[in-house]
Amino acid sequence: MSMKQKAYLVLVLLIAGISALGGALAGGLVVYQVTSRSADQIAVDEISNNAAPAVDTLVVKNTDVETSVTQVVQQIGPAVVTVVGTVPGQRTFFGRTADSQVSGSGVFISEDGYILTNNHVVEDATDLQVILSDGSQQPAELVGADVYADLAVLKTAAPAPAIASLGNSDSLDPGETVIAIGSPLGDFMNSVTVGVVSATGRSIDTGYGYQIEGLIQTDAAINEGNSGGPLVNLAGEVIGINTLVVRSSGSGNVAEGLGFAMPSNTAQAVASQIIETGRFSRPYLGLQWQAITPNIARMYRLPVEWGVYVTDVVNGSPADQAGIQSGDIITQVGEFVLNESQSYINALFEYQPGDQVTIGLVRNGQLIEVQVVLNEA
User: Fold this and answer.
1) 120 is catalytic
2) Residue 227 a catalytic site member
3) Phi/psi of residue 62, each to 5°?
């Protein structure tokens, strides 16, 4: 074999070795996105008994994720604030109790100084202040709140140093990377934690006679003081307002990584009305539902790409009186067709309690309409 032939053979072997090594490295960076189904999603699955959910394969480089997280934090961080206030002491038989201090988080959503936070952060509090990411402090006033969604809107007199945009929470997929930003324990301002969307459409019993519905579940670390801060996707959009964390069950079992956030679509609808009118009048239809997106529609072979699947109807509710049933798919609320830019919650909140609204839905493959008179929650 000539020297030229030997050199050529070595080059071929070298290229083959590099190709094999590259394949091994690429295989080590493959992430499989597995959909974790909630009870509502199981109900959706019942309408397609033989559907076999597809598993998507996603190739992600660790450096790409780290770069995205860093960029999002740099973008959203200046819009995040620490909210502090004073709850006056109460009169008792033995005298007056001492005042207490409260703290939480919030995020600017408007250049005019409007801030989204949780109702439980500011409820009964006076002398509200917000601490900006640069450490400066500004007074804030409460514009309005909705106890059922645990949301509140504050306003500062000075313009916002930065604002965060609200994304479409209906488009979230379990397994999607999310970032929580807030001030845990009130001391560690603008702390950043990273996790995934564990599930959507969760409901939590408040213990006060009602449930907080439609919550996003995440394993991003959330602690006391994170309440009211944003949950952000890798596109730099706020897709939730961090609301609560569950540490244990009724049986005493200790749990970790069970954080919950109010979806951005609900937050946007509530905030818009509060900013416009100073209060939120919540229309009540009386059903539990699961959002339908093109991915879910394809996975379960549904007849529509956008809408909501009705998983349960409350007895005696407006939905029940109108004849809406479990298994129906709502595709239109009044004049609003549900699609990528128009969610069910946003469409419903365009109306007031007492309004008569036409609901378009699909039942057994047939498109029908029913008339509903909305109540007030």
Assistant:
1) yes
2) yes
3) -55, -40
